[in-house]
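Handout, tutorial session.
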Amino acid sequence: MNDKAALVSLATSVPPHLFHQKQILEAASKLLADRYPQFETMSSLFANTGIRHRYGVKPMEWYLERRGWPERTRAFLEGAEALFVDVARKALAQADLSAGDIDTVVTVCSTGIATPTLEARVAGQLGFRSDVSRVPVFGLGCAGGVSGLSIASRLAQARPGTNVLLVALELCTLAVRHDELTKANVVAASLFGDGAAAAILRAGDGGATRIEAAGEKQWPDTLDIMGWSVDPEGFGVIFQRTIPDFVRDNIGPAVTEILSRMALSASDINRFVCHPGGTKVILALERALSLDQGTLDHEREVIADYGNMSSPTVLFVLERARAHGLPSRSLLTALGPGFTASCVALRHAA
């Protein structure tokens, strides 16, 4: 019996409100142009992201009003619970399981605060058992999809035969700010959307795609590259525009280092499945990983259709890669606050 955790199912979901990139630019201009003179020169960002449209948990009018913590939190709880239930049900249906078959739930989210945590709030609605193990994970940001898969796979491997449900869910749009007249805030407004992904993992008899190995690398003195500041109005984005340069200069050696700890090399990888932070990050990844420009095609499609949804985004890419047929070995990669690279190697038996 193979003790590696296998990917039994993978599903994605988005909230109901669809925003075209042109609509978001018009709204951002209405909010910021008069108060932030640099906005006009930065507005080209919205056209250069490669994003066609994104999804939000609230209608456009909601974002045009200034919001504080209580309203943001109410919107987060309402929207996140609905999205959690929807994506979990999809993953359960794919796996031909019920919520009562789930032994462990790993919830990855960095865009809202909930105590009790989301999986507890939806337990009754979904039908989780009273003895289900709950593992909420906060603060991994864009790396959360890959790191969450790593955590879930190790939990599945520790108890072969049990079913582990991973839900990576982010409502990035709720962090939109009217008061922060900064480049970082405009960049964030041009990129981020809402979405969720869910996967079920099981060791022993799970299926053809197995989590072979996982690894991370955190760079010293990089805490200021990406993250949240916390103030009376809500989360404020910490977002350095040098991220594509950092990726180009650092991700190649980091992936080589992580692969070597897995007893693998780049030549063993048939397909990279990457978190697409944006068009410039995708280009930087292709260069850093010595890939031909255009290789990361699913990544470009996901960013065009959904924007950057933080942690679940890479699982949207994996969903497309699975639909097209996974090769024998893939490497999932994502970068997030820390500043950290997270990788998971998948082994697929055709």
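The second record follows below. Compare its token runs with those of the first.
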Amino acid sequence: MPLFVYVLSLAVFVQGTSEFMLAGLVSGIAHDMSVSVAAAASLTSAYAIGMIVGAPTMAALSARWPRRRALAGFLAAFIVVHVIGAVTASFPVLLGTRIVAAIVNAGFLAVAMSVATARAVPAKQARATAILLSGVTLSCVAGVPAGAMLGDRAGWRSAFWAVAALCLPALALVFRSAPASAARHHGVSIRQEARELRSRPVQLALTLAALVNGATFATFAYLAVIATDIAHLPDGAVPGLLAAFGTGAFIGVTTAGRVGDGQLRRGLILTLCALPVGWAVLAATSAHSAPLFIVTIIQGGCRSASARRSSTASCSSRPAPHH
């Protein structure tokens, strides 16, 4: 596997950490900027909105850009908005940086996917994609708890500085190793892709993803507050709780990836049924630390497994392109 695929995975790891780390920083941001906890938690929603807007828009705009320029530009912009977020005293500015960060994150991921598959031989293109996207899973397991720990010890702004600093090695390696040429096209148009998005399997997958992620992050954004204010755990326990969610996510996505096609629908139905039951149990038992950790692990696994299975189901049902 080309080393550059791992470089891209490093960048995806840092960007995934930025996306999810707010769950452990909500209280500190709310206190420092004199806003409500709900307002601080809305930073997670701002990132989600940016990803929704940015994914199709940036994929279309960057389709013909030189790969090196696109990757470096997106990474540089990601660094700049995190530096601004780390120094600003204005909550609206911080909110704006989260939206911009999500948009450029979506653009980087779109270009990185095409570069990773192009760099690998055909037999290893699926593995290249898996390595690239493993950065997101690893960010939940290690990056987000580390960000929460850093925020607890040195303030939430230090987590933003850390994200910006960790992007610098990836940026340098992109300048050195990314292909300078533009992407090659094989007759696939944006209009054709838009038609595919209107297909029933893809719309079903998008609806399931929206429902699962919406329900998950409505609670995930408040995990730190639940741990400290409801379960009365010390601040130092928050990174462990976030790591529990990440561990569950890793187990869930790994297990779902090994499930055969014949068990795909059954597994998807089971995880989708388990999710609301799990959140109800969490609401009833969140005042106690042991159930809080156990349910958090289970919910992380169910969320990732359902997301993986729904996307796999949509891809397997998607009609083959016509040439």
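Points raised in discussion: The chain has 13 helices and no strands.
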